[in-house]
Amino acid sequence: QVQLVESGGGLVQAGGSLRLSCAASGRSFRSYAMGWFRQAPGKEREFVAVISWSGGIKYYADSVKGRFTISRDNAANTVYLQMNSLRYEDTAVYYCAADLRPDDTIATMDRSYDYWGQGTQVTVSS
Q: What is residue 105's three-state secondary structure?
């Protein structure tokens, strides 16, 4: 069992930055690829970014590539999402998720993920 708690959301002006954190409790954090997803009002949840066990594999949605950076600290059981050059369309509830993987690979489909946090609101004003 893994519990995930996101933090770092808030209100920011377009062009600004935020850093989201996701703290994991439970065993075997190193066995999980960690992903970030988001859901805007009236829209389906969408993939944002994912990082493998080791941190050696990262993948981003095209909409955030070059602006967002995912990282993890396995010693601290935490994954981060640094969000720069924020746009109005980045406004959403952001969720972190844990995907138990048999190897150092990644997945972008939300059905692959085993555990989810409660979400943190990010609001970008135009």
A: coil
